[in-house]
Design goal:
Strand content: 15-25%
Largest sheet: 5 strands, antiparallel
Number of helices: 15
Order of helices and strands: HHHHHHEEHHHEEEHHEHEEHEEHHEE
Radius of gyration: 49 Å
Helix content: 55-70%
Strand order of the largest sheet: 2-1-5-4-3
Distance between the termini: 77 Å
Structural class: alpha+beta
Number of strands: 12
Shape: rod-shaped
Length: 521
């Protein structure tokens, strides 16, 4: 196909050249018949030009017509020197790089020149001598033979070069195919950006992770980082444009729907063959599950440490405290003793220490669990009823929106009561005035129960809310800092999760999600 295209381009070039020379040659014709031949030749050239065939046969037609035209001009010429123009078709055949037309034209030209000299010698004003003819024959032979040998050499060289190019193209195509396969089938998201931060190319994993379709973002600048990380991302981009790289950097990226996720990214500059930076590549993966696993492991370690501490505290403190408590109770039976008010204070503090030790013992379990199925809705109603007098006393309005009739959970009901008591008690203590507590209980199609306990109390800032599950962290004067940690442990043992959302001055929302069944079975 490439050879045919080369023939087509050469045909067009020679059609144009022959036409221009023929038109300029008309100015010097004196014979009307010669002008007639020239016009016919021009029509023939125009026909061949608009036919525009790419087949090699056109060169034979073109060379034959050119040779005939030169023969007709020589027939009506009185100068034998005009026969030198017979070399021109041979030269054109050389440019076509074809051997057969040159051989045919060589013998044809010899016959034509001999015939012209024989039939027109009477009209020539100058006649070739034998030496002239021999010199012309040698020149013609040298021209044809040299061009043929050169063509054979060139064909051999170009064949070898063509084979090498074909092999290189095959390797390059194979390499590009492998790279494209890697790009398309990579499990990590890959995106290529230009220096203006516009997307050049993305792979299918990018579309799946970020939610953008390739057609939507090619050539555009789209937001892929969370708003709070925008300045950091721009600073990183500028550093990469200066040659820096980032490997396995953990950050927050944003999907098309605006949701943010934990991402691990690798950013690298892309250089061209001259070493100039032309683009940036970003490889990213979602590590939300990894971060969640790390958090669970961290919480597990916290529980383990607290449990070990609880076991030590329970054995080392409770026994001597029992003795102290006994003697203090004996002293407090006599209200008239001079240190009665101090001993009463000591007794209350001993009770507080005993309460702390009791919470430690919950963390120190494993213990023999008496798990069974129980109705969570009934348990929730019981706890709400338990707090109703205190709520009425403090003027706090408790509203319930329970969209389930029954919800059966497998676990220890007493522990779940402890969680609910702890959460509602925290909500009451966070409220100052005009208090409201709203409890919402719903379920989805996956049989996941969702409980929300919302209050309009003083709330917490972000840094405080992130520490509520840490052991011994509390904002209360008389708090132990173990209540929320114990609650999280109990919810986890029920196969659920607990989350806290809080805003300072607005209130707090505690969300619990657990598996359940609508019917006891």
């Amino acid at each position: 196909m490439e050879t045919f295209k080369i023939y087509q381009k050469k045909n067009k070039l020679f059609f144009t050249i022959f036409t221009l020379f023929t038109i300029s040659h008309l100015r010097f014709f004196e014979s009307e018949s010669t002008i007639y031949y020239a016009l016919i030749y021009l029509v023939l050239l125009a026909t061949l030009f608009f036919w525009n065939s790419e087949r090699p046969v056109i060169q034979y037609i073109l060379l034959s017509c050119l040779n005939v035209y030169i023969l007709l001009v020589n027939i009506h010429s009185v100068s034998v020197v005009m026969t030198i123009f017979f070399i021109y078709p041979i030269y054109i055949a050389i440019l076509y790089n074809s051997i057969l037309p040159r051989i045919i034209l060589f013998f044809t030209t010899l016959v034509e020149i001999c015939g012209l000299i024989y039939f027109n010698k009477a009209s020539y004003n100058y006649i070739f001598t034998l030496d002239d003819f021999i010199a012309f024959f040698i020149l013609l032979t040298m021209l044809v033979s040299t061009s043929i040998l050169n063509t054979l050499f060139d064909n051999k060289y170009w064949t070898r070069l063509s084979d090498q190019n074909r092999s290189m193209r095959k390797k390059l195509h194979s390499r590009e195919s492998y790279l494209q396969l890697f790009f398309d089938n990579a499990k990590d998201s890959i995106a290529v950006f230009d220096k203006d931060n516009k997307i050049i190319e993305v792979n299918p994993a990018f579309e799946e992770l970020y939610g953008w379709r390739r057609e939507e973002i090619i050539g555009k600048n789209v937001p892929l980082v969370s708003p709070q990380n925008k300045l950091d991302a721009e600073a990183r981009r500028k550093q990469v444009l200066n040659g820096a790289s980032y490997h396995f950097l953990e950050t927050k990226d944003m999907k098309k729907d605006g949701t943010c996720f934990d991402a691990q990214i690798t950013i690298s500059p892309i250089y061209d063959y001259e070493g100039a930076l032309v683009a940036l590549s970003v490889i990213s993966r979602d590590i939300s599950f990894k971060k969640e696993a790390e958090n669970l492991l961290l919480q597990s370690e916290k529980l383990k440490i607290a449990g070990e501490m609880a076991a030590g505290v329970a054995h080392e403190i409770r026994n001597p405290m029992t003795v102290i408590s006994g003697f203090i109770q004996i002293m407090n039976k006599d209200p008239k003793q001079p240190y009665y008010q101090y001993s009463m204070l000591i007794e209350k503090e001993i009770e507080r220490i005993d309460y702390i030790i009791s919470e430690f013992l919950i963390l120190a379990k494993p213990h023999a669990r008496l798990s069974k199925r129980y109705n969570f809705i009934k348990t929730l109603d019981d706890i709400c009823m338990l707090f109703q007098p205190e709520l009425n006393l403090k003027g706090i309005v408790l509203s319930k929106e329970i969209l389930l009739v029954d919800a059966y959970i497998f676990g220890e009901e007493s522990q779940m009561k402890q969680v609910l008591i702890n959460l509602i008690k925290n909500a009451i203590e966070a409220i100052t005035d005009n208090g409201k507590i709203n409890i919402i209980c719903t379920s989805d199609q996956k049989e996941t129960l969702t409980l929300k306990i919302m209050d309009n109390g003083i709330g917490m800032d972000m840094s405080t809310a992130e520490k509520v599950f840490d052991p011994f962290f509390t904002t209360k004067v008389k708090g132990t800092g173990l209540g929320m940690m114990i609650s999280e442990k109990i919810i986890t043992e029920h196969g659920g999760n607990i989350f806290i959302e809080s805003k300072e001055g607005t209130g707090t929302t505690v969300t619990i999600q657990m598996p359940h069944k609508e019917k006891d079975c």
